[in-house]
Amino acid sequence: MGYRYPLEPTPPRTPLGRMGTVSGDGEQFTGAVHGKKASDLEERWAGAENRADRSFIFQYFVQTPFSIPDKDREIDFMDTEETWQPIEIDGTFTHKSGTQKAKDKVRDAIVNLELQKQGILPIIRIPGDDIPTPEDADRVLREIFRG
Fold this sequence. Notes:
The chain is α+β, with helices and mostly antiparallel strands. It is built from three helices and six strands.
């Protein structure tokens, strides 16, 4: 008979890897956008798109002739309201190193080449630091679409 732990393991109070289910200003996070797993920053941007009554596709897949991992072929958001505008939301921690920025540039060049063939604009990258609140996300969205 093996060792028996006296207590059941307790789950973390907030999901691991997330800022929490409620931000400091009361913003609710569910962990999903359009039924797909999403970061808090992605949820914040989706909220801005929804508040502006814009149409978008979350996790838009781009077929490329070059071999890049499937996840690298997904664009966080494809705003489809007027001309199609791909948008990437860059988490501060995951996209701050020089190595990651160089990888992003190569990936964007490959994906943008395919998007251009379809008449789609180049990817816009939004640093997470630019959208710390829903109001900031709304402002950045207005700046992008001049609306």
